[in-house]
Amino acid sequence: MEPRGLIFDIERFAIHDGPGIRTTLFLKGCPLACWWCHNPESLSPRPQLAFFSSKCIGCGRCFDACPNGVHEKLADGGRALHREKCVLCGRCVQTCFAEALVIEGREITVDRAMEELRKDRPFYESSGGGITLSGGEPMRQPDFSAAVLAACHKERMHTALDTSGYAPWEDYERVLPFVDLVLYDFKLADPEEHRRYTGVSNELIRENLARIDAAGVPMEIRIPLIPGINDGRKNIEETAGILAERKCITRVTLLPYHGLGETKYPGVGRSYRLNGLRTPSRERMEEIAGWISEFGLAVLAR
Q: What is the separation of C-alpha 9 from the centre of its chain, rounded to a whole number of angstroms?
């Protein structure tokens, strides 16, 4: 049986998910819970109902459309959303023309995914671009990821895998033969600090970093810079020391923190932990890039 994937977005004309112009397929499910995640809709491995209050025009159609009492109108004119009652029938979403209600996550076959990925092939070929699997964590769906990457590889499309590194090595062994570039996230050098801010230790991530390097697959390391969490010189130099041991790293890309995903959190029933945190300045980004370059690593500060 053909594997099916659960995705939450397909982004065309992406220019920051690998070389050239790309199409990025975003898969749901992630084993990490990073405080700064800008895609909270990606964390759950299942479809979920999202409600964005800023889009709601108060028409009340969802109250009548839902057969299970998910949407409750309160006496004070407000509303309550009982997510535990939702069976994802989609009736409220269908009646919400303001798009305040959305089901995050839809199932897709490999064939259907390939139909979408082929649409912009002329742009891949003219720009040196291709396909990127991202998330969430695409390695949470190894059967689907391996099948899509193999199909792209067969059609000579450049492939990139954007991964946290937190997955069983046997799953990476299945997909790496079809991957031209790994976009490897690295957040914190200290295992306990990593556990505090992401929910998991980084020991498996460091092991897989070494294994992918030994397999000879090119890697671009991506470090999200979160002020006050991982942008101190001690962590940066410890991280750079770990990365300098690897031979297949093409460059280190520094990604400045931004709070653009903050407004999504209430929509999927989650709380955001970094309210009010500011984006690091260009000067700060360049300073940190300088620390890393001292270890002989090529660095790009976005």
A: 10
CA distance 203 to 182: 18
User: For residue 2, what pLDDT band results from cuts at 50, 70 and 90?
Assistant: confident
pLDDT tens-digit readout, 280-301: 999 999 999 999 999 999 999 9
Q: Which DSSP symbol is given to 280?
A: P
Q: Range of 167's domain?
A: 4-45+106-301
Please, are residues 161 and 140 in contact by the beta-carbon 8 Å criterion?
no
What residues pair up with 108 in beta bridges, in sequence order?
5
| CA count, 13 A, side-chain hemisphere, 207 | 11
Q: Parallel, antiparallel, or unpaired for β 101-104 and 48-51?
A: antiparallel
- In tens, the pLDDT along 103-121 reads 999 999 999 999 999 999 9
Could you say which of 104, 120, 137 is where a domain stops? 104
Number of domains in the chain: 2
Report the predicted TM-score, pTM, of the whole model to 2 decimal places.
Answer: 0.94
CATH of the domain at 285: 3.20.20.70
